């Protein structure tokens, strides 16, 4: 039986200080239920208020902080891209953005934020009550949320710029698919360039231009994300995790993991185990996530 795509919905309140910047191996949408604070995406800073929606892809480093006098509280949704890709590839477009130019925040006063907020509350209700067929209902709600995102960004983006986004996405997608399938193996820029029928220099430029990151950093991100999953979900020795994630030697593995996650692999595994125990005791539906580097 095929494994179901990841769907994870949870309640989260940031600290009043800024946690380490982090990335995820999945797509992420946040809805501010109450309070205020600040969200950081690379060099961008967004104020947060009740009703705001935030969009995060798997590449952009981000962090959040609460207002000490009015702490923010969110519903966050993590999901695997295959969930929406199977329905309509176009729904992925809001998540394929150049970080420096993308507006991650949809302010609460906009129609899209209000509609997405309503869908988030319906999603949370399905998740909490778990009536028969709730998984199908949750998938349907997530697709509706992604449709609202797509329509919002189409409306907010000049048509010429949106057409360039479409062209860029379909130009680089074969390379991303190839890397996602092969990142656990030795892989070079030349391999990817050959797949795209481009020169290595042109392929390098395409990554930087379309994703805002280089090929090497993109590959490292995928491998570190895989290592995080294995550290949190298995008892494999760290050396085996390293090889299973596509790294060939300890030095590059430890440096990349520390750079991207902000913690050493063993520390991350210990923190993940503590969080899993806390969730088991508290009940996942009511969990507030905090300090695990992500």
UniProtKB/TrEMBL annotation:
CDD domains: cupin_RmlC-like. It comes from Paenibacillus uliginis N3/975. Keywords: DNA-binding, Transcription, Transcription regulation. InterPro entries: AraC-bd, Homeodomain-like_sf, HTH-like, HTH_AraC, RmlC-like_jellyroll. SUPFAM superfamilies: Homeodomain-like, Regulatory protein AraC. One of its GO terms (molecular function) is sequence-specific DNA binding. It holds the Pfam family AraC_binding. This is AraC-type DNA-binding protein. It comes from the Bacteria. Residues 173-271 form the HTH araC/xylS-type domain.
């Amino acid at each position: 039986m095929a494994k179901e795509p990841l769907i994870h919905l949870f309640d989260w309140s940031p600290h009043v200080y800024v946690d380490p910047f982090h990335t995820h191996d999945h797509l992420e949408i946040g809805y501010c239920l109450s309070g205020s604070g600040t969200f950081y995406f690379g060099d961008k800073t967004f104020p947060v208020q009740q009703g705001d929606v935030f969009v995060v892809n798997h590449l952009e480093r981000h962090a959040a902080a609460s207002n000490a006098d009015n702490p923010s509280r969110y519903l966050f949704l993590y999901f695997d891209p295959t969930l929406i890709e199977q329905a309509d590839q176009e729904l992925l477009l809001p998540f394929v953005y150049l970080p420096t130019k993308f507006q991650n925040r949809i302010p609460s006063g906009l129609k899209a934020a209000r509609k997405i907020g309503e869908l988030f509350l319906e999603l949370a209700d399905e998740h909490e009550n778990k009536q028969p067929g709730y998984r199908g209902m949750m998938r349907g709600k997530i697709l509706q949320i992604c449709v609202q995102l797509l329509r919002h960004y189409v409306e907010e983006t000049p048509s010429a710029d949106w057409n360039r986004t479409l062209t860029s996405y379909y130009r680089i997608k074969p390379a991303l698919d190839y890397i996602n399938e092969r990142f656990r193996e030795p892989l070079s820029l030349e391999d990817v360039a050959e797949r795209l029928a481009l020169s290595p220099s042109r392929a390098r430029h395409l990554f930087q231009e379309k994703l805002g990151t280089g090929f090497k950093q993109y590959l490292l991100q995928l491998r570190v994300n895989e290592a995080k999953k294995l550290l949190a979900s298995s008892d494999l020795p760290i050396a085996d995790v390293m090889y299973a994630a596509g790294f060939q030697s300890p030095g590059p593995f430890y440096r990349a993991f520390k750079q991207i996650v902000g913690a050493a692999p063993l520390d991350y595994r210990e923190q993940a185990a503590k969080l899993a125990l806390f969730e088991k005791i508290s009940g996942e539906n009511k969990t507030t996530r905090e300090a695990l580097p992500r």
